[in-house]
Every structure is written in structure tokens, then in C-alpha cells.
Amino acid sequence: MAYTSKEKKEILEEAKADIKADDNILFLDDVIAGLPISKKTFYEWWPKGSDEYNEMWRMINDNRVTVKKYIRLKLRLSGKASELLALYRMICTEDERRAINMNYMELSGKPDSEIKIGFVETDAKPASSEDDVKQ
Fold first, then answer.
1. Cβ atoms 36, 18 nearer than 8 A
2. Alpha-carbon span 77 to 89, nearest angstrom
3. What pTM, to 2 d.p., does this model score?
4. pLDDT, tens digit, for every residue of 28-74?
5. Per DSSP, which regions of 35-111 are E strands?
6. DSSP reduced 3-state for 53
7. Under a CB-based contact definition with an 8 Å cutoff, are residues 3 and 11 in contact?
8. Within a 10 A sphere around the Cβ of 59, how many other Cβ atoms?
9. Rounded to 5 degrees, what angle do the CA atoms 77, 72, 18 make?
10. What contacts 83, CB < 8 A, 6 or more positions away?
11. Long-range contacts for 114-117 (Cβ within 8 Å, ≥24 apart)?
């Protein structure tokens, strides 16, 4: 089915209205599923990097921030130690993370060191058939 530019604009406005109306829309696939077009058509009309795509993506990211704030608030208000610790881990500094994380390992190396790969001289010759290889 061929769409007119007016219909294309209406579908874009529908997509943006859906994102704005429902802060549980967290992925573009959620938007596309509710539109009368295929995923392929969506990306043909509004490819990554286009102004329309970027506007929808910004709206979805706004939804994500809203949901993250809600989750953090629920964690904070729960009073349960494990949930408070999960929240603390999200917001703590690296030093604090080291202090509370029992599995923390700091890796360091010598970036100026050199790795040398050598070859071992042998008298071995390639086998010409499987019969030449000793079992």
C-alpha cells in the first residue's frame, strides 16, 4: 500500500502521541508495534539520525528517565536492606563501591612493558599424508 505524505505525517504524529501518552514506552519497537506500518517501513521513512527519529528517541529517553526515577524512589522508600544497597550501588563513588563490594578486584598492568614472541627451531617437517603421522 502506498501512503501519501499526509498519511505519513499523521502516522508520525500518532507515534509521538503514543510515546507522550504512555511513559511505559521504553523502546522504539513498542512504538512500531502500535503503528499501521511495518518495522521496515518505519526505518525507511525515519532512518536513524533523521530529525524525526531523533525526536522520537529523545521522547523515549524522557520516558526512561521517568521510569528510572520511579524505580529509584521505590527502592529508597522500601526500607529493605537489599533494595537500599542496590540503590546505594547505583549512586556511590568508586571508593565507596570498593568498600561495599566483596568481589571488587582492581587490575593494573605495565602499559610500557613489552611482550616478546619467539619461535622454537625444530627439525620437524610437515607430513605429506596421515600415514606419515605417528600415533
1. no
2. 16
3. 0.63
4. 999 999 999 999 999 999 999 999 999 999 999 999 999 989 988 88
5. none
6. helix
7. yes
8. 18
9. 120
10. 74, 75
11. none
